[in-house]
Structures are given as structure tokens and as C-alpha cells.
Amino acid sequence: MLKKELDVRVIGKYKGKDIKIITLHLAQTYGGYLCGKKETMNLEIVASKIGQKSTELFGLHVPYYNTDLNDIDFKNALPLETVYVELECFVPIKEGDGSALVLVWFQNPGDDPFIIAKEKLKGIIWEEKAKDFEL
User: Fold this and answer.
1) Long-range contacts of 35-43 (CB under 8 A, 24+ apart)
2) HEC letters along 87-122
3) How far, in Å, CA of 83 to CA of 4, rounded?
4) Model confidence pLDDT, tens digit, residues 46-65
5) What's the rounded Cα separation, in Å, for the pair 43 and 110?
6) How confident is the model at residue 4 (pLDDT cuts 50, 70, 90)?
7) Neighbours of 12 (CB within 10 A)
8) pTM for the full model?
9) What is the DSSP string of the chain?
């Protein structure tokens, strides 16, 4: 059973090596907001809150990519959860010990972030978004 549970963390491949979820964090999209105009809050969440939270969770060295950015209608409510997933692959893009990327998206409560992460990664060119790291 443990092997099966660990396999769910592998969501893709880069140059034949596994891309794995190493950290997953769920947050309330509107957490910290008491009131305000929806469009203004949405713009603030996308323009600054996501970047700040990514840095807080993973540091400045891991790039983040908001997978929903082109599909957001800022006038309507966003889904209630924001998901931050740190991905890692032990193959560098250019040099180092491997590469990493944080994916961010909005989802509804009850959605499975592991399934969604796998789908989101299919639309991403790893070497364009990920960044090398050294151990």
C-alpha cells in the first residue's frame, strides 16, 4: 500500500525522470479578506498574494507559475481554494542537481489536487517554467 501512495506523487516525466509533488499546500482564496469589491480583491490576489504566499512557503529560489492566469474572469468569484504544489525533478534544465517549479491554481473544495496537478502539468513545457537547483 505504501508504494501505491508514493506513486500518486509522480505526476509527469522530464527527460525520462519523474516529476514529483514534494509539497502541497491548500489555502483559502479569500482568506484574510473581510470585504471588498470582488474585482479588486481578485486582482490583488493574483497580482501579489499568490507571489507572496509562494515565497513564504517555498522561498525565492523556486519559480511559480499560475496555471489559471489566462482563464480568470476578475469580475466573478474565484474558486474558494488556492493550491500551491512544489514539483521537483532530479534532472537539471542546464546545470545543477535537478529542477523545480511551483504550480498554483484555484479549485473548488473537494477537488483532488493530485489529479488536477497531473492535468495542469500536461500543458506546461518543463524547461520553460522550471528552474535548476543545487543540493
Assistant:
1) 38/74, 38/75, 38/76, 38/77, 39/74, 39/75, 42/72, 42/74, 42/75, 42/78, 43/74
2) EEECCCCCCCCEEEEEEEEEECCCCCHHHHHHHHHH
3) 23
4) 999 999 999 999 998 889 99
5) 25
6) very low
7) 18
8) 0.90
9) -HHHHHHTTEEEEETTEEEEEEEEEEEETTTT--S--HHHHHHHIIIIIHHHHHHHHH-TTS-EEETTGGG--TTSPPPSEEEEEEEEESS-SSSSSEEEEEEEEEE-TT--HHHHHHHHHHT--HHHH-EEE--
Angle at alpha carbon of residue 62, lines to 46 and 16, rounded to 5°: 115
Integer distance in angstroms from the first to the last C-alpha of the chain?
Answer: 30
Q: Which residue has the cell 507572496?
A: 52
Q: How far apart are CA 51 and CA 112, in angstroms?
A: 23
Place of cell 509533488: 21
